[in-house]
């Protein structure tokens, strides 16, 4: 039997049968592997069944999704094909996962239907699915769009769930949530769930959750008990020289360390997180000055290169980020969930809410921008009281952030020992999973015994297939990809290049698009416009080297204090890398 921590164990012997009398739901819970309720399930399900509004807080991975799934399934009328429950989630991946959990638990309910409504998929499919859908799960943008177009009627909605409520009350989601609630019936039950709350969030929820019952179980440290957390510093040069590592040398070192960790730690599946839109160790989260999240456009390329290299070494890997289209994102998640890959390389797209059962190792290639995201990342392992390992590779700047986590958040993070006992994160596997793991291990051992040569990682900026998990090249390697050398700072003079700009539009969700050869970048700090406009091209010269904010770019909207990326964000074709 799988060992569990106190995060999900309760003192007395209580079964799900004491929380619901619906035999179809009980059978669905049993088939889904839920044996006994966790503390949040024990406290919140009875309140939800009474029709009370709830604001609930519990650690990541302790079973919050099951709470509102049981409440929703008990309240629907399957004889009515209209949507009766609406569940909102901040990311497409979380929405799809909720839909899958809901369908698993409700698999024995006759005529029950649940669908996910997310961006990146054809709207005609949504319109068809809404014709028979008792429980609708979706992201705020797509749900609002369907409501505004008249395709989604809310008149039968009796239950609304805000999952990851802290995220839904931020940024662009907030006006979308407000617009959706304005169209909802006055009489409804509202449930809000999150792993973290603060006073500002509770104040924001006051307008949506009337007279709530509070279920706050996240006391003490917010970290999961079963996750052992370590860090390893990267600043020392292997050749003993005293010069600090350049950022590209740091990337190379971290690639090497990830592969070394995989060889030493007997993991099942791993998620490697990196900062998709920024390299945090310029300004870690212990600093209070603003961070530009777009300071490293090569992060997607790093993800692709790391994915390919690990795969060629026998660690079957796939990467996922917001830059992939929705079908590619779904395929990446499917590959991870079905154990077709051992490593998932990701941005913070799946840092919260995502549950991949076999993940018992999380690696931070970069530290995130804030402590909350760090806690969400490491919470991708140790799910539902199991055990896991989290390792962060840090430099001196990031090490200060580790100290903040230790002192201000009470998180126990130690320096990575030379040997990590497998007992710290051991968990049980099914017979099918053991067989799949053996296949992965045999493939890995074959490549160790018969190393293939001469793989050259192609520049993903020029590779249209770079978003796929595995390179189709016939060349192979056992060494990490060669990253570009640092920009020389002793070259001065005039440079000239072109930049093509497309101002943002309502169809872009207020996101401007600017590009130069060879690729495009998104820049959400640009003030939104109301009408689309064609790309406009500008030719200019500038002194080199110089910071980005001194570049004379004659584009309306850049100015007035609007934050711009650094020079590292702009790589004209005539520069030497």
UniProtKB/TrEMBL annotation:
- State which Enzyme Commission number(s) the record gives: 3.6.4.13
Skewed-composition ranges (Basic and acidic residues): 442-462
Q: Which CDD domains match?
A: SF2_C_DEAD (cd18787)
Domain Helicase ATP-binding: start-end pairs: 45-215
Q: Where is this region: Disordered?
A: 442-514
- Record bears the keyword Iron-sulfur: no
Q: Which GO terms describe its molecular function?
A: ATP binding; hydrolase activity; nucleic acid binding; RNA helicase activity
Which keywords accompany this UniProt record? ATP-binding, Helicase, Hydrolase, Nucleotide-binding
Show the ranges annotated as biased composition (Polar residues): 463-480, 494-510
InterPro entries in the record:
DEAD/DEAH_box_helicase_dom (IPR011545), Helicase_ATP-bd (IPR014001), Helicase_C-like (IPR001650), P-loop_NTPase (IPR027417), RNA-helicase_DEAD-box_CS (IPR000629)
Q: Which domain of life is it from?
A: Eukaryota
Helicase C-terminal domain mapped to chain residues:
266-424
Q: Which family does it belong to?
A: Belongs to the DEAD box helicase family.
Q: What is this protein called?
A: RNA helicase
Tell me the organism: Jimgerdemannia flammicorona
């Amino acid at each position: 039997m799988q060992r569990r921590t106190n995060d999900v164990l309760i003192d007395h012997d209580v079964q799900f049968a004491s929380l619901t009398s619906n035999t179809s739901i009980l059978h669905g819970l049993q088939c889904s592997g839920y044996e006994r309720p966790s503390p949040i399930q024990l406290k919140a399900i009875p309140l939800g069944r009474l029709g009370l509004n709830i604001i609930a807080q519990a650690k990541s991975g302790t079973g919050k999704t099951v709470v509102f799934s049981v409440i929703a399934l008990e309240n629907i009328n399957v004889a009515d094909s209209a949507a009766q429950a609406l569940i909102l989630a901040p990311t497409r991946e979380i929405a799809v996962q909720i839909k899958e959990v809901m369908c698993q638990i409700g698999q024995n309910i006759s005529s029950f239907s649940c669908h996910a409504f997310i961006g990146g998929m054809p709207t005609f499919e949504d319109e068809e699915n809404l014709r028979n859908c008792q429980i609708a799960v979706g992201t705020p943008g797509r749900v609002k769009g369907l409501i505004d177009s008249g395709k989604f009627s809310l008149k039968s909605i009796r239950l609304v769930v805000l999952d990851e409520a802290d995220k839904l009350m931020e940024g662009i989601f907030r006006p979308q949530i407000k617009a959706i609630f304005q169209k909802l019936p006055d009489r409804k039950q509202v449930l809000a769930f999150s792993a973290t709350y603060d006073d500002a969030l509770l104040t924001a929820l006051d307008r949506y959750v009337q007279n709530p019952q509070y279920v706050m179980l996240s006391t003490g440290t917010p970290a999961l008990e079963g996750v052992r957390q370590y860090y390893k510093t990267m600043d020392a040069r292997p050749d003993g020289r005293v010069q600090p590592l350049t950022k590209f040398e740091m990337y190379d070192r971290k690639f090497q360390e990830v592969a070394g960790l995989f060889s030493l730690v007997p993991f099942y599946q791993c998620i490697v997180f990196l900062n998709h839109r920024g390299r945090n160790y310029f300004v870690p989260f212990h600093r209070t000055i603003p961070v530009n999240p777009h300071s490293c456009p090569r992060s997607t390329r790093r993800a692709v290169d790391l994915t390919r290299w690990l795969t060629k070494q026998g660690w079957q890997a796939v990467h996922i980020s917001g830059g992939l289209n929705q079908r590619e994102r779904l395929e990446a998640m499917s590959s991870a969930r079905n154990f077709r890959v051992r490593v998932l390389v990701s941005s913070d797209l799946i840092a919260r809410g995502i549950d991949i059962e076999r993940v018992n190792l999380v690696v931070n290639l970069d530290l995130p921008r804030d402590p909350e995201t760090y806690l969400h990342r490491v919470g991708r392992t140790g799910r539902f009281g199991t055990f896991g390992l989290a390792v962060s590779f840090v430099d001196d700047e990031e090490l200060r952030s580790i100290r903040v986590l230790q002192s201000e958040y009470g998180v126990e993070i130690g320096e990575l020992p030379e040997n990590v006992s497998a007992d710290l994160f051991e968990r049980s596997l099914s017979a099918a999973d053991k067989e799949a793991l053996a296949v992965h291990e045999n493939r890995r051992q074959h490549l160790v015994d018969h190393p293939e040569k001469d793989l050259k990682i192609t520049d993903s900026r020029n590779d249209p297939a770079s978003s796929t998990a595995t390179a189709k090249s016939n060349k192979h390697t056992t060494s990490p990809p060669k990253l570009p050398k640092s920009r020389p700072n002793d070259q001065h003079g005039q440079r000239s290049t072109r930049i093509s700009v497309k101002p943002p539009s309502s169809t872009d969700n207020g996101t401007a698009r600017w590009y130069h050869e060879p690729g495009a970048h998104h820049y959400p700090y640009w003030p939104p416009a109301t009408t689309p406009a064609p790309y406009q091209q500008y030719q200019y010269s500038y002194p080199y080297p110089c910071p980005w904010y001194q570049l004379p770019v004659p584009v309306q909207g850049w100015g007035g204090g609007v934050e711009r990326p650094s020079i590292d964000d702009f790589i004209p074709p005539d520069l030497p890398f």
